[in-house]
Queue: 3 jobs
Job 1
Amino acid sequence: MSMFVIGYYAALIAASCLAAYFQRRQVFLLLFSLTLVSFVLGIIGGVPALRVVTICAGLLALAAGTSYAFREFLIQISKPGLAKELRTAPLTAAFGMFVIFTYAIAGVFAPWIAPHGESEVISSAFAPADESMLLGADQLGRDIFSRIIFGARNSVGIALVATTLAFVMGALAGLLAAVKGGWFDNFIGRTADVIMSVPSLIFALLMLSIFGTNLWVIVVVVAVIYSPRVFRLTRAVAGNIVVMDYIEAAKLRGEGDWYLIRKEILPNSTAPLIAEFGLEFCFVFLLIAGLSFLGLGIQPPTADWGSMVRENATLISFGDITPLIPAAAIALLTVAVNFVVDWMLFRSSGLKEM
Amino acid sequence: MGDLLGLVLKRLGLGLVTLLVVSILIFFAVELLPGDIAEAVLGQSATDETLAALREQLGLDRPAIVRYFDWLGGAVVGDFGVSLVSGDRVTDAIADRFLNTLFLAAYAAVIAVPISIFLGVVVALLRNTVFDRVANVVTLTSISSPEFFLGYILILYLAVKTNAFPAIASLSGDMTFGELLHRTFLPALTLVLVVTAHMMRMTRAAIINLLASPYIEMARLKGMPPWKVIVKHALPNAWAPIINVVALNLAYLITGVVLVEVVFVYPGVGQLLVDAVSKRDFPIVQACCLIFAATFILLNLAADVGAILTNPRLRHPK
């Protein structure tokens, strides 16, 4: 029994006792079950396993602290109405907003933050990390850290463009279908069904094999693949609004379809659409990352997280975690967006259970 | 019962029509190529003679409709033409790999389905406790991670650092079944992680939806123990959504399998498809896409039929 193990269990048990004493049932349950799990883990994995648990707990605490501070910061700087909303945000949502904020900064100011250029070869291949290169060099001798920063601009930027395009197409089609109805509605609906009946990655691969892996081809193909999802949601939301009396009234006034969409339907369907935008972004982002990972997405020398994982994957067989960092960056952003979307769905639709 | 049979047949027919439309899409998408297949294959090195020869060989001088029916007729009996790159028959290239892919997906499904349904029910029972929140965050993280991220983490910790499982899932003919399971464990586990998270969340949502209904409230109010409420009252009605969830997630496996196969260099259809796409080997791409799409449609169909079978209310559409 080392000092670390004794201290570890003492801290856990003391914390659970404190939680029990102050009647914090949830906290107590969590801490005490962690103690029980640690017994098993400690027997199987020994001291290293317990160390991992400690590090994870520390990281979680750090993340929780950061998100708490960030939420307070947002509450302080925003207007009273918005601040009241923000106070209801769970810590996970605050964490998500913090991560998105960080990525946005990294993406916008990439050339100033990154110490080296995006495709600048500065050392030998797979050179280890030193003062000028935080994470070492990749397979061509480019600085991995700089490329990750630039990746925030490229990968996220392209995903954003594709999502926006998918959204504009899907939402427009959905709104028009809801307003016009009839054969137009049916036609678009069936088209969406067909597109959705092919798995998205497979469809993307088919299209890329035909049109080549040009950047714009990727954006358009991905947008086409994901627009049916937006279409369905918009159609459903708008379908509920179209039957309202005020729409009837506007129609009787002689307003055109475009007016109805813009002034009557859209303002009443923004909340679910914004949440859908977040979800859609996650799907698009993961699909593009997957394509880049397969070598069929964003082409070199543009720095992109998916292709960085692929290019440096050999390092993993030497036990080096550097190739996992861009993959983790992808996962972190998707998780963050999901957290925020979860909260928005909960808030806007009164959807109590996801 | 005849009524039910008719309904199921109708769904099957609709599925067939969808498949037909998808096959049209897959075939004619290639026709959209700027120029034609022959030009795309030969690229810069094309001369008039080689172009004409290749067109002749591929039968491009016939109208597209005729070629489509030829292709479809072949596809129905399992003949997808010859590869443009190697000149081998596409069916030979795909057959073994398709079995491998099915094996991997089945392996993952056998582990994932019971675990995720069990965990889903448990989490639904513990809803709004701290365990539920933790499970929510963990599953969300697992869903949000790209498959290759999970795959490489598993390789790093289970293959490189501890050497418990092989990092590359190479298969050979003379392996025992146990060895096969051992070799393909990591790719299967990657798929399990992604799919379990999905299924858990959906099972939880399905059960919680049910638990809000008045008859469950009634059972609870008359003093029934919670497990009995779940097993006797909620579960019989939850089968329909759960079957739906399982089928949808098996369909999801189809997409996940492509990335996982590439990560673990697993000899399956996904790997073949990716190679064919980068080489622009259209017959193989079309065949793989059709197979994936057919499986996907079939599983979605299974979800619908399962829902109809387990939920009598769906048998009488309003």
Job 2
Amino acid sequence: MTMPLLQVENLGIHFGPTVDPVKAVDGISFSMQAGETLAVVGESGSGKSVTALALTRLLASPPARYVSGSIAFEGRDVLQLREGELRSLRGKQIAYIFQEPGSSLNPVFTIGYQIREAIELHRPEVRDVTAEIVHALDTVGIRNPASRLGDYPHQLSGGMQQRVMIAMALACQPKLLVADEPTTALDVTIQKQIMDLLKDLKRTSNMSILLITHNFGLVAGFADRVVVMFRGKIVETGPTAQVLQNPQHPYTKALIECVPKLGQKQHRLKVIDYAGIQ
Amino acid sequence: MNSISLSQETYTQRLWRHFHADKFALNGLRIVILLFIVAALAPFLANSHALIRVADGHVSFPIFLSLEPIEWRFLLYVPLAGLVYFFRHRFIAHPGIFILAVIGFIAAVEIFLALTHPINDPTNDRDRPASFKLLPPIPYSPIESTPDQFSPPTWKHLCGTDSTGRDIAARMLHGARTSLSIGFVAQSIALTIGIALGGLAGYYRSWLDIGICRFIEVMDCFPPLLFILVAISLFESQNNMFYIMAVIGLTSWTGVARLVRGEFLRLSSLPFTLAAKAIGANDFRIIVRHLLPNALGPILVAGTFGVASAILIESSLSFLGFGMQAPTPSWGDILSDARRYIDFAWWLAFFPGLAILITIMSYNFVGEGLRDAVDPRLKMK
Amino acid sequence: MTHYIIRRFLLLVPTLFGITLLTFLLIRLSPTNAALIKGGGGEGGGKAMTAEQREQIVKFYGLDKPPLVAYGNWVGKAMRGDLGNSFADHRPVADKILERLPLTISITGSALILSYFLAIPLGVIAAIKRGQVVDRTISFVVFVLYSIPSFAAALLLILFVAGGDYLNLLPMYGINSINASEMSLFPWLWDRILHMILPVVCLTYASLASISRYARVSMLEALSQDFVRTARAKGLRERVVILRHALRNALIPLITIFALELPVLIGGAIIIESIFTLPGMGQLMFQSLDSWDEPVIMGITVLAAVVTLLSYLVADILYVIVDPRISYE
């Protein structure tokens, strides 16, 4: 077996007081192979976003405290890296797209500039940066990309903004794309477009994708494997089809039942019954 | 902290808890209270007359005979405010009786002041022989000239003396009254106007709002100090404390009006106001019972900062020779004296400057603490 | 853009009307002038004026005409730049103000620019080091500065560094030394700069304090935004994240602060110019108040209000220019 791309071992992240801290991530372990797509599923507060940000130590410390474990990316422990090494990891090796494209893009810079910044930083060998930006925008399905370079984020719709975020992330050809709730803030139809785009990208490149979501509906047909998080711990993990069809943990079952299905009559929306779990 | 006790906390208790945790704000409040006490007790702290004098077998209390009306007012009303605060719970339980008692007390004091006249005794008790006398800690009156002219700070004159030998420490203690009362009253006037106009604009909106907003805009175009200087010199040739209070108050209400308007606009579209309207409460009731209490926090914050700026304006005016003038002691007036003897008399500038600085800073710390307590999300520190 | 500016200019009209109306009411309601309106000599109305000056005031402000006519005439004259003649030397008020304006503009302008240049780094550093010793120290010092009355600071500075019994590093009064007219250009310039240091410092520190407080809050707000995380996730240096991504956003609201500071600075200039005997507009105002030169007083008041109004306008337009989110139309 080859060395995994990402190996998280017994990771623990605490907030708040040292005595009786908030254990946002409480000793989790998982790994990802190159080219693999992994989904981390859980409700808000389960620690999934904290985990995502921790992969490049984007979570500032303080207030967060990395109390235990390791995050090995291509064999190097991210938690031990110096600031300079971290910066060459961010964007270049591991790129992010976030939940709110509207506020994640800087309102006072053009989208062209914001993509250019990433390319100039990580790919100094590129001669024609503008052509590269246009190519990146083209890849994410923005029509007439050359004419949009001078646009400010507020001039674009939410879906377009998220495409720009994806273009920015892809521009440096990262090995791992972390998509932190990439569709939560978008309309349902736009959600589908963005997920289709991510699926295309997955097919055409050898990039690994870590999808963070609370919605099991997005996982099917997208992720190879699933990790289910609940209150800072991993409660279940396995191939997507297996987890979806035969969930072992009651919380996983509850989460799956929350997804409304077409053609199925439901009298009321399912609500997770926490008393029944643990 | 456990969440159960927090949930039972009233708004005021929560405010006080936040305020109390802010050391700067708490000490600021202590200094402001101390300043008011000093101002109230100024005649007993700095006076050329004795507190008690025994001579020829007679016991007399010379200070009380020489008290000016404003000194009586400070002396009696500051403790009154303390009493009202101390018995505030009973006050709320029996508002009628208490309001009557307070009004009665004030009326009695004012009638007494109208009927009596202070004895203007130019002599002092320092040199006058007596078998027993108890002099105040600073045995000089603020308007009394002594032979020691331009004395730097010494044990005899703690803060030095000015060109006519008046004791600066005595003038500063008495001057506290001018600054504090002008700051307080001027800001009360500004708050009244600001709440009234801002409330009308925010509640009734439409043309009333447009008109009031334009008025605020116009007022804001006049640089405050310049406007006040013009207003004072246009209308008044002699110095009069109430006149200065009124002018400062009439020109510094726009900030409060903007604030109250904004709060009322926000609050009057919230469900609880709509609910009150739905059950048929009249406008007055909605404004007084629902909107005003909810806007009170920000108003209090603005009011506190306003007192600081009113004190600054008052001292600027006296400094420029447009406010309270000699012989009435005020901090700005001592500073304007300092200007003439700038070559050497550092004490004339230093002590009143420091007094103004401490007062303004204390009020600003209280204001900042209140703001953080009213809206912990905006916490600056 | 042009549309916006035109619309914004049209909005000035009602405010301008308000400013002139308020000034006009002040003039007519003052006891002295009220007595003149009623007829008679205006004695007992307060201000001591010669018969000639009374006649001049009645004529210029139209105190003998019905209020509406008088207002129309007065505004008409003011629009043409005729603010009446000074009592003191019978020269046109507009000329007197104009010759003193450059000095006032140069000291308030340098104070404003200086306070921006110092306040923004202070605010940014405090925001980055939020809650740490650096932040608390800056915040406290700024708070103390904010509370020191400028005239007390001016007096103490003169006392201790400009002559007197203590240090004698800087000149005490005026804009130039007595022998300035004999100096060649560079010594003259140096002499002028030395004379300007204390007044500008006294005018600067309070604005500096309030702008740096705004800068800190604005920067904290910017640093808490999602795009800062995006910039970090891109692998940008922390310096670039802060100085380019966060600061660019934090500066937008700060641009408009200058309009709020201007009225305070104009008030401050009156005090500072009179302390340092600088022949600027503030000193002219002060002298006119002292000797009751009514046309000059009213001229300066209206001018100061109009300048403030224009600075609000400039601030609004600048805001639209710097913030790409606000569309021009």
Job 3
Amino acid sequence: MCSRNDNEDGSESYMEAKSKPLWSSTCQKCSGHNPVIQILQIKHAYCKNCFVTHVNHKFRSTLGKSKMMRPSDVVLAAFSGSLKSHAMLHLLHAGLSEKSHKRFLFKVQFIYVDEGAVLGLSLAERIANLRAIATLAEQYGFSGHFTSLACLFDSSGPRCFPLNKNSSLTAENSLENELQLLFQNIVSLTAKEDMLKQLRKQLLLLAAKELCCGKVFMAHTSTDLAIQILTDVSLGRGSLMHHDVTFCDFRDKDIKILRPLLELSSKEVAFYSVYHKLDNVFIPSLCTKMASDSSIHNLSKQFVMDLMENFPSTVSTVFRTGEKLGSTSSPDNSEEDDNSCIICQARLEVNLSPCTSAQATEFSRLISSLGPLGFDSKTLSSISGSNGAESCCSGSASNCCCNSNQDSPSLSDIMECCCYGCRLILHDLKSVSSLSERILEQVRRRKSLNSMRDSIKDFLL
Amino acid sequence: MPVLCSSKCGKNAILKRPKTGDALCKDCFFWAFETEVHSTIISGNLFKRGDTVAVAASGGKDSTVLAYVLKVLNERHDYGLNLVLLSIDEGITGYRDDSLETVKQNRDDYQMPLKILSYEELFGWTMDAIVAQIGRKNNCTFCGVFRRQALDKGATQLGVNCVATGHNADDLAETVLMNILRGDIARLQRCTSIITESETEGTIPRVKPLKYTYEKEIVMYAYFKRLVYFSTECVFAPNAYRGHARAFLKDLEKIRPSVIMDIIHSGESLQVKDNVKLPVRTQCSRCGSVSSQELCKACVLLEGLNRGLPKLGIGKSSLANRARDQQDAEKKEKVICDF
């Protein structure tokens, strides 16, 4: 393989950058009695009016093409206060106030997820954010709700509360502490971000169930999704990636997560917001202001942005690659509950072939700890089919999970109920006991079901 | 305080494995490295007893380590393989002629027969001559496409059952990323397979025994075993888009070393929608090798060189066809004028 990337003078030379196209002086749509305001997608110049129509049209056509929306649907729009999600609310509102035949028939509610506990904000700051969000969304007249990440740790009780300008947050200390402890126990920023994303998604699904909404709208743009593709691949989530990067995430049986902005780039959304003078509430997240090499997500973002500078088609190429991915099996054969990942609800991968990267890694771990003395060729054949959960006790014995009490499941038990990507989060987790009680409960249930199945398996037909 | 080897053999560790983070002593590392390759070979069913296997040898670190390890494992586990070295001489002065010396050294050290095929005898062009005609841009396309075919032809001439190449885990992860960036869904699907599928009869499968081995560990292995390898980089030109993917991967690896295996896992488990059109593999109508087009890439590139239109196989095929037709028309005119 050719591995030469450098010129003789030591400078790095990659593929040559495309030359920037000239700005067109007329609008492509209406041939320009209006001054052209912005160039999009390299060559497309639109005037302001044509541009806004174009964004509206794309949004509507994405929903229309999917053929998923029914008049009776109630949609829960995830609203974080960001420009993107505000633009989504604006577009939805525009669609609902259209003239009769073009009007959206479904109903819209929105929800704000308070993540302040993880981000280290004070209660006062969080309440201020909450009220700012309520003020922002007030003009649209949708019924608003809010929920807090810590609610995930609450096994009973309501999770959603009505959001208005006087809403207030009562941080329930025990739950908040549990949540904070979990994130303190995760050692890498990459795993923290991944965990936060999974928790947020879980919470949105639970909230949608509570509010009887069948669909959740998320404001991901094509730029976000291109970054997500590279991040997911790097996080080992390849097999489930199509859920994260296409229009519909149908991992949950009852509730679908849809991404109606996915045909728009973040640039288009930003200009749409500017033209409509949309405000936003900026809430810094885990990776805000961090160096680009602080997490895989940040690095992917930086990488895509850098490439976009010279290769403007990067995002659309990567995004189209993602569109071709999908599950080869029909979506609804996940009838068995115990066959899905307890953290991200994806269907667990069935072992495809005897020779995979996951097994190779596990094998490396095993033999690095056994050494030539503790190893014989029989071990080789006996592990080749398993997914290597036995490596748990071979590590240093002092903090081994198997020594902990019977009540809480061991790391290997939890690993068995997780997909490859979520196992990587667990690898960066210092103590499994800080996982939410809901997850641990599921692990226990699955474990006991498995042992029951084992004991009767000789008699099963 | 020195770190002890994590296999509890009592010796001091001398290295940390990039793949798992374990600290190992020299002997345990050799053992682990070889056992892992052995495990890959066994679980992937790469070889059959009695097979003749050509090791694609460039003289670089990957192929040198591959040849050495295959020889060691063949003797230790009695695979019953007949190993030969196969080298391709691209005709790059100051690079390939030197690295071929290394391969000849390997031939003597490991007692394996060596076959060298040159671009010149196969295609009538050396890389030096090609670069003289097309310049430094795009010449890696020629080199890569021709090498692929040269390996196939060499393997056929030697009558081997399969060709083992030195692709390592880093190469594979890089290829996965690159195919995503290029939107090449067909290659994305097959680039991680350990054996190239041989749907069409007569093609010789290529296998990658070092698929799960980190590049760093290969260097470590070669370093501690004191294996001779050639480490000068090719004198010609950059390799396009791959450079971006490579730089990205190196940065990712700094954040989380397991990322290489994670990317390969993603590549292995990717699923493509049923309704996506994929190119159908057929045979080249001119030379008979596997191709998704009427003519294989090597034949198109070669035609371009011979016609004096080296860009023929580089850009869009419609442009290539136009250039070809134009030249044909001009030739015809000339013939008419000659009368």
